Structure formats: C-alpha cells, structure tokens
Amino acid sequence: MSQSDAIENLFEEHRVFAPADEFTAQAVAQASIYEQATQDRLGFWAEQANKLHWHKPFTKTLNWSEAPFAKWFEDGEINVAYNCLDRNVLEGRGERVAIHFEGEPGDTQTYTYSQLTEAVKRAANVLNGLGVTKGDRVAIYLPLIPEAIISMLAVARLGAIHSVVFGGFSADSLATRIQDAGAKLVITADGGYRRGKASALKPAVDEALGTNNCPSVEHVLVVKRTEQPVEWFETTDIWWHEAMAEASPEHEAQAFEAENPLFILYTSGTTGKPKGILHTTGGYLTQAAFTHRNVFDLHPETDVYWCTADVGWITGHSYVVYGPLANGATQVIYEGTPDSPHPGRWWEIIQKYGVTILYTAPTAIRSFMKLGRSIPDQFDLSSLRLLGSVGEPINPEAWMWYREVIGGNRCPIVDTWWQTETGAIMISPLPGVTHAKPGSAQVPIPGISARVVDEHGHEVDNNHGGYLTLTEPWPSMLRGIWGDPERFVDTYWSRFEGQYFAGDGAKKDADGDIWLLGRVDDVMNVSGHRLSTTELESALVAHPWVAEAAVVGARDEVTGQAIVAFVILRQDQLEAAGADADVSRVLREHVAREIGPIAKPRQILVVSELPKTRSGKIMRRLLRDVAEDRPIGDVTTLADSGVMGAIAGKLSTGAQD
Q: Which of 591, 582, 641, 644 lies closest to 11, judged by CA?
C-alpha cells in the first residue's frame, strides 16, 4: 500500500487495564466463548438463538446462497414482543420493574413486566382495530416516553413494520420517510419536553400529511404528553389514551417467520434520499439479546441498566427496547437533555435509581468534561459497576475521565463499534475477559469476523491503518435498503469483493487490536499523508486544557489540505490557560509532539460550542464550510442553530476567546 493510499497510524496509546479478579469471577462472558465461536460459528449462533422462545423451532441456521442477501433461522417462527414481554411474565418475572421512566419536568412512571405486557396488548388491539396487520408500516414520531416503547412492541406483536423517526426531524424529513415506507398509520404526541420547555410534535405531522402528499396514511394516533393545544382532524386523528381505555387487555401473540421484517430505520446518505435500512426478526433479536447480555455483563436480577439513546436511533432500538427487554432487564429511560433542569441531572438519576450500567455517547462524556468533575462529585455514583460508549470513537483522555470521574476507577468500560446497518454490537471488549485500552474498541465479539484492509481488500499488518470490513454474514445484519436492493449492493458490497464496507477507517495496533478512525470521508490528505480526524482530535483532547475538539481539512495550495481545529476548553482549565495565553500556539506544538510536525494544525479556534445534531453528532461539513469560507449549509438539524453564526464570526475576526 503506497503512502498516498494508507491511513496513517500515528497516535499511540499504551495504557492497559486488566479486569478486576472479583469482576472476572462473576462475569457473564468467559474467555472460552471466543474458542467456541471460532470452532463452529454457525453452531454458536444457533445456540444463542435457542435462548429465545421459538413458536416453531428452526432447523436451518444460515442461508447465504443469494449473497449478500442473508436468511437466518429462516424456517423458524418467532414473535419479538412475546420474547420481550409474555415470556418474562410466564417465567415469573411479572413483578420485576421493566421501565423506570423519568420525564424532564420530574414526572415519573414505573412499568413492571406485567404492566408493560398489558399495555402492549391493549396497543396491539388498538392498532389492529385501525387495520394494521402483518407487513403494514407504522411511522412512530414520539419523544422518549413509555408510549414509544409500547408502540414499537405493539407493531412488532402484530407482525407489522415500524419506522421510528426521531422527534427532532422536520416535517419534510418526516414526510420523506412516511412516503418511502408507505406508512399506514402515524403515532405521535402533542409534544415532548426539551430544555425546560414543551416542544410541539403534532404540527410537524400535520404539515407532513397536509402539504407533502402522504396518501398512504389513514389515521394519526396522538399521545397527550404536554397538553399543548393541537389542531384536530376528526377524519384521521385519534387520542391514544381514549383508544387504550377502550381496548381489550387480552391479545395472543402470533408466530411469524424469522425473516419477517421488523423495522425500517432511515439513515442519511451522503447524497440523495435517506436509506431505509431493513431489519428482520429472528437474527436481529438473537444478536441484540446476546450482545446486551454479554457486552454489558448483565445480571438482570440485580442490575439497573440505562442507555441514554433515543429510540429514534438504532441504539435505542437494540439497547433500549429489544435487547434489554428480551433479557428481562430493569432499565431507566429519560425524556430530556443532560443539562435540564440542571447540569447534574444525569448523575441525579443514577443516584435516584441506583443505576449499575451506563451506556452513552462520547460527545456527552466530553460535554461533561468541559464542565468539570465538581458536578458529578456532588452525587453518589457508587452503584455504577460498568460503563459503555457508543456512536463514535472515544478519545483516550475522555475514556480516562469517564473511568476516573464517573466510574471511580473501578468500572470496566466497553467501547462498542457497530452501525444502524449492523443492527447490534460488532466490536467491543468483553468485561471480565478483555484487558481494556483507552479509546480502542479492540476485538470483534464472538461469532463476528472483521478485518482492516488496504485499498485492494488485503488485510493490513499490525501497526497499520486501512478500511474496516466484515467478512462473514452475521445474524443482525441489514437485509437490504427498503425498496432498493441495487442500492444495497452498490453501497455496502461493491468496494471490496465479498466484504461488507460501510465507510469507516480503522487501524490495528501492535497487539492487533482495532481502533476506529471515523468515516473515511473525514480522512484528510496533507502533503501526501492521509490523516484521520479521530487521531488528531484525540491528540488535542489529550492536552489538559481541552475538553472537546473537532478537526476538518480545508483546501490549501501548498499541502493539498490543511488542518483546521475547533476546540472547547475545560472550564476548570480556563484560568490555568490564562486570558493572554497563546492557546493556538500551545496546542499546535502539543499536536506536533504527540503525532508529528506533519499533523500540526494550520489554525486552531477556541469556541464555546460545536455544531451538533440533537443526537450529539458533530456536523463537520458545517465546520468545513467555515474553514473554506463558503456559505454555511443547512443547519435545521442542529440542536442549536445559532452555534454556527458564533463560529463563523470568530473565524472572520481571528478571535481566540
């Protein structure tokens, strides 16, 4: 691989943390699980699938004859909702708490497995009464409230297909997804609570249906959450609470074939319309349940689990709804933002419910780093025993802060890599088994085959970077793009023959452990060196002044691309930096020491916030617009659209805070 083809492997991390003996002795996963999966991969996955309840047992584990279109457990029959609900009740877990709901205003609800089962049965009867049957599509546009989970499970119980749309999306985005899926029903709410205010949702549905031509929609089911005034259409609109009150609490779950579609989840493409990622039933639930149980070392009788993701994202599907409930877990869901009504809200919730497992995103961790440890130190976090990270590569220093400040230097951290398309976790340490490294996802989970390859699809040696691919089918893999099988093949299977590639760069360290480098689209070419934004950002965050960083490449006549960095300083370090300190000079020299002179940013701008979507993703394309002095693109998906104005103004004035 030539220098121009290689993704540089520059930023090094040598700290390693062995699991505690006490943790290892009680861990769910054992080292032998890897050997078992290697010796008989399909037998291993069949064994995991058989831990679920099958109305009709399967005899075929995998059909890969029409690759890349897989069929797992195809002759078996199963009901996802039965596995998540009825089975727990019938096996004596009916009085166990399934969901502790915490609303942003402070209202709470608790559902036992018996109560949640009854609610889902009622909802299934409501949907069936509105004509929803097997194969129909239902759009769900709700805040993170219990009704969102109830709706998803009710749709699954009927063999229908849900398409959950994140409540932060616009009416146009919602309409595009309804149209593509051909949704028969929309489930929404009058609104939800965000940052101390009631945020309307139903008006976006009204706009989507009224001006964007969604003829497939027959009814709109509306949850009363905020009691905001809403426009009401008697021909289509139905109040959720009224329909639920009239519905029967009795409903028998029907068995569906393992490859019956379960959900469509839309993910934005780099160009064109969003991709409707299609997941089916038996294989998806098998891997979601297996990974939730083993990666999070779940002990359902004693653990209180909290994944902070919204159900509008794949993390919420797999690790708020299906994985935890299939495993009989007790979990917390929270409607609002981490800083409302005060910046310690998350830590307050952990203390209140005795949360033992926390699974969240690096962007949230870095936001807390910015505020300093004085806030979490006000709360008792001693119940925590395991921490997880999801959504993007985590910087080693953010990993260390998470371990020390939130985990009290006692909690293993599982840094997980997976995607909407993979359906479930693919690469992660196993707690109690793996010696963890700050910032590294490390190894494929048992039963998964992953490689880092060069431009020609050949596996790279240790201490080299390249492209992350998957080389064997896995149970929770996407079964296609809704309505567009050709796009599915072209998008994921055309770059490297026989290998799945979805656009992520990675490197292998001296031990062969895998480090994710972010999207290949974000790799910069500086004087012939292909540098990863993730490694540069990690180098910046390694400096004690920096809480968060975002790096982009800007056109440069001499080097091809030049590095422009946007950094947020830690509040507890602002005084140390000093008002007159040359922050840019100090940080540029720091990067040169950590990585090398070639990686020294051309420009560093200190900012108060970074442009992020409501899910926490940094919108680097907007930062590239600023760095290259272009008009700033669409900001409607940002959590705070005013951020870009402040950043653009800072660049134009050359200000450094």
A: 591
